[in-house]
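re: that chain from earlier
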Amino acid sequence: MPYLQDELDRKLIAELRNDARASVSYLAECLKVSRGTIQNRLDRLISSGAILGFTIRTDENIEKNVVRAIMMIEVVGKSTSQVIRSLKGIRELTKIHTTNGAWDLIVEIQANDLHHFDSVLRVIRELDGVLNSETSILLTSV
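^ sequence. v structure.
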């Protein structure tokens, strides 16, 4: 049975989005509950799959040479699930989104340099079920 989130879980997740390294003590103080309650909630959110992991956000100046892009993908017929499974195996894809409209999927790509980026695009375009794609490199975040 899936773990049903409540308001405390949503607040806890929001705090962790702001600072994934926040201590249990800090989170308990912010949310006005005991440390044990926070730890139990974290354990349940992780074991249920609601929280898949913890990450960091970096200043874009730290990753000056990183190439980031958005790729829109059109798939053949009913092969979306197959294409998604294949895309999940490409580590340079930071997110995969389903969407509506002209494109079936949108992926976020992060590569170390343009040569690496070009090889990632080639891998995606050669996947069985990928019919068409359009890619936009992200230049500056504002």
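The two ends are 42 Å apart (CA to CA).
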